[in-house]
Amino acid sequence: MPAVLHNPNALELLPAEVKPFGQAAQKVFRALGAGSGDREAAGMASIVASATARIAGEFDVDAILDALFDTAVADFADSLVLYLRDPLPIGDERPTGPLMLRRWHENRSGENSGFVDILAASNLSHPEHQGIAEVCEVRPGSALAEVLRGVRPVFTNSRSGDVLPEFFGASSASTVPDGQRVIFAPLRGRRRVIGAALFLRRPERMAFEADDLLIAAQLATHSALGIDKAVLYGREAYIADKLQRTMLPETLPRATGVRLASRYLPATEAARVGGDWYDAIPLPGSRVALVVGDVMGHSMTSSAIMGQLRTTTQTLAGLDLPPQEVLHQLDDQAQRLGTDRMATCLYAVYDPVSHRITIANAGHPPPVLLHLGGYAEVLRVPSGAPIGVGGVDFEAVELDAPAGATLLLYTDGLVESRLRDVWSGIEQLRERTTATARLTGPDHPPPLEALCDEVLDILGPGGRDDDIALLAARFEGIAPSDVGYWLLEPEDVAPARARRLVRRVLARWGLEQLSDAVELLVSEVVTNAVRYASRPIALRLLHTDVLRCEVSDDVPQMPRLRRPRVTDEGGRGLYLVNNLAERWGSTRLGSGKMVWFECALPGTSQTAPDRAGSVLSGWNR
Predict the structure, then answer these.
(1) Which of 17-26, 197-206, 500-509 has the highest mean pLDDT?
(2) Does the pLDDT of residue 179 top 70, yes or no?
(3) Could you tell me which of 214, 196, 159 has the C-alpha nearest to residue 29?
(4) What number of CA atoms fall less than 13 Å from residue 367's CA on the CB side?
């Protein structure tokens, strides 16, 4: 039996308009319960108790109405028609426009139409009758408006409860069976009426009695409060999910020597709001930071903390800090956010030139490395303490990252559930990646996107207890023969030497077509470095799907692009780089900065030599 029938304090949960009715319901049910032989009274109480129990555990409007239908039809009524306000109000928002009630269509076939069938069975149907209205407008001053305002259920054959014409048309009065056969019950939430229910019994069945109004009131009240709860929860979950997806990267960056793929799946049911995230952040020297993290808890607060930690991680990555130092700073930031702000995180830095990866872990599940031959291994990385614990050191390990291997970073929602522990899930993940790699043979790694889909298949059918973030990185690396690296003393002859070195390596790579433009750009960038540097200047060329040039010095001041005037003797270096290079930028290093630019290879797009002619000719004009 529902709590409101036993506990006087439970009445405080009801809206003010319904409390007197709830008090009357308590008295009636106590009286009915006094006689143990009154099976009908016990059955009616069981109906309310069953509906209340099901409604309390649902977070979906359709599921709540399903529960009302399942418990009310057959035992209490022969048919039930449900109307909901369109649109449903959310929380404290004030609806605008007229009050419209739209008929709810459940998944079962024909149950709602049973209402019309019962009316027709009475042989009192009218030829003008067109069936139950799909949408009903509640006009001010009408009988329907008055009943909705009163909140309490009524018999529709009473003068005050004559609401059927507004649902069936003016002829509906003649189609209703004799006696108290139809109960109209408003559905009132915490703030306002959000719908209505029509209960009907067949002519051959005993008509409704006054006590049945109490049953209808209980069913309507619990259903309305449940719908209110579901609507509020749905809006909160939608906002949190939208917030979380907005804070995740829209696209992964184009990184040198590595291909990336990712997946994000929210949890289902009540736990679908979480704090999982992933990221890939380009770093100086063609490196890339791979990040995956999981804020503990499931709420909008978790999503907000996730956004703050992800932003902090990006900022720390821009400072080019070691992985263990990034986690230490994240730990400090989490403690500043609050004493209970905890998260796990794994931060890795991949260098495609050295084919090495450095990993630091803060209480996160270890990554899985799938080798080119099809062997998958769980990397041995010190687990560390979660972010937010405070006062702990994080340890980084440096491992080989061979070309063709694939690194999988994931959150615990992928490998842990109520049915398996985390280590069983990790072993299952390892076995699945191994089996997937065998399908493509030992010399060809599986397609990255397909591999992500296969990995998610270990979840199986059913709901997920936690959200899931997955980041896959296919290491391609850069061969030593595609790298040119030199140290130049900050002397006046450095630009000329840089041009000779660039010309020589471009000829070896068969890129003589780019020689003139690249020599010009390298000369300009090196000249700017020589002007202020006090230590040797590093010059590096990388030949991948583009030609990338990097010039590093010990001067912390970042270059600033400006358009030179005709009378200016200098200031044209970065102007040339901006117009001739495909992309360019500058990055702050721990001991200075790096200026880099990229040029498209011949045949891929408009190359630097093609643009050089137009830029220089326009400059001359």
Answers:
(1) 500-509
(2) no
(3) 214
(4) 30
